[in-house]
Structure formats: C-alpha cells, structure tokens
Amino acid sequence: MASAGVARRCLVLAALSCCSLGAALALVVFGNGATWERELPVCASERSACSLIHRRYWQSPLEIRLCRCPRKEPCPEGFETATNGSAFNVTARTQLKMCSGWQATPCNASQVSLVTKTIRKIARVAQGQNGKQTHAEVVCRCSGQDSGVYYRRAHGNNTADLTYYEQRQYFTCESLRECKPGEPCGHVTRDYYATYKACNCPAHHLCTVPLNFSDRKVVNVREALYEGTAYLALCLPK
C-alpha cells in the first residue's frame, strides 16, 4: 500500500515543473556502450548533445553521457533550471546538454529543430550485449524553452545492412494549443514520469494521469528521445 501511495504521488507531481532537483548531485552513467569517458565517441559536431539528463523524482538527477566534447572540454553538468546556451529542454524534466562554445539560433517556422539517431549494432545484440547507441543533434532553439517545449515528430527514415540498423527522427517546434478539461493532453513516461505535453490545460487543472490504476490507459508512443509505453495524460482538476 505504501509503494502504491508513492507511485500515485509521483504521477501527480509529474505535472509540476516547479519542483527543482537540479541542485542535487547527478548520478553519471556512460551510454553508447562506453564504461568511462575515454570510451565515448567524440561528438560529431558542435550541434551534438553530449549528455541527456533526467530530473528524477525522489532521486538525484540521472546524467547519461552520449559523446565526448572535443579538445578535452568537459560536458556541462547538472540540470539547468534557467535557460542558457548549453541546455535544451526536451520536457520539463528531460534536458540535453551541449558542449561549450555554440549558441543556437532561434528556429524558423516549420524548421527541423531536433534530430535523434538510434543505432543498433546487430552483432553485439546477437551476442547478448547492449548494441544500442543514441545520439541527438540540436539544430536551433525553440521559443518557450523556459516554459515547456513540444517537439512534434515531422518525419523519419531508416537505414540498415547486415551489421547495423539506424533510425533517424526529425522534430519541429510546436506551439501548445489550449486543451479542455478531461481532454488528453500528452503522455507520461513510465520510467522517470516525464510529461510530453501536446496542449496546455486550463486554469486549476493539471496534465497528469488518474489516481486509480484501473482508470489509467497505457499506450505505445514515439516521442523525442523516448520510445515505448507511456500513460495517456488527461487534464484533471487539481
């Protein structure tokens, strides 16, 4: 019963972006098959994100290192609660960090703003190893980075041969419309409870999931840097 209560509380809090854990020390893990910094691939360009940070509930932030900045420069650490040149919000609790020295220009209408690439090395997967690599490229900065961003999937393409499978997805900035009470407003991930909003709820409502487990709907989603099952979020009274 206690664990169920904690889960319900987390899901309600997932709608709130005011809770700040950015000051806590992050747990750093190395992605893309690396076990330490030197095994990471060098970032392909100045637009490549060097880390993906999840601001988790009840735990320290999780920082997943994606690539190594050139010239031995450190990848900026920690979840930034204020907008700056090195941080790009994917959701209110998910953030990409960039190597220093690059300033993104504002996005134009319908311009691709974010490109994600997932690579699966078939030989490593066949051997039972984690052959998945994730990369992200920030092309420009969406407006409203400090108040929540909606990245809409514009299109994607796949490439494959006998050794690897590569999937690219392209996202554009989308202005959040106003949604009605009780209307679906986005998705809440089942791992870190990040909310991918599709619209803004009216006053005195939160974009969250029902408290009762029987009322929750699980759907398959494909969002920016998240693909899998998620809860369907609704505009519910506070």
Give a description of the structure.
The chain has helices at 2-13, 122-126, and strands spanning 27-30, 49-54, 62-65, 87-91, 94-98, 112-121, 132-138, 150-160, 164-174, 177-178, 184-189, 195-197, 199-200, 205-208, 218-223, 226-237. The protein is mainly β. The chain has a domain at 176-237: Anthopleurin-A, CATH 2.20.20.
Can you summarize this structure?
This protein has 238 residues and is mainly β. It has helices at residues 2-13, 122-126, and strands at residues 27-30, 49-54, 62-65, 87-91, 94-98, 112-121, 132-138, 150-160, 164-174, 177-178, 184-189, 195-197, 199-200, 205-208, 218-223, 226-237. It has a five-stranded mixed β-sheet, with no helix packed on it. Strands 11, 12, 14, 15 and 16 form a five-stranded antiparallel β-sheet that branches. It has a four-stranded antiparallel β-sheet with strand order 7-6-9-8.
Classification by helices and strands: mainly beta
CATH topology of one domain: Anthopleurin-A
Strand order, sheet with most strands? 1-3-2-5-4
Shape: globular
What is the count of helical runs?
Answer: 2
CATH architecture of one domain: Single Sheet
The sequence of SSEs as H and E is: HEEEEEEHEEEEEEEEEE
Overall number of strands: 16
Strand content: 35-45%
Provide the CATH top-level class of one domain: Mainly Beta
**Which ranges are low-confidence, i.e. pLDDT below 50, for 5 or more consecutive residues?**
1-23
Radius of gyration: 18 Å
Largest sheet: 5 strands, mixed
Helix percent reads under 10%
| Amino- and carboxy-terminal Cα gap | 23 Å
Could you report the average pLDDT, rounded to the nearest whole number? Answer: 82
Keywords: Signal
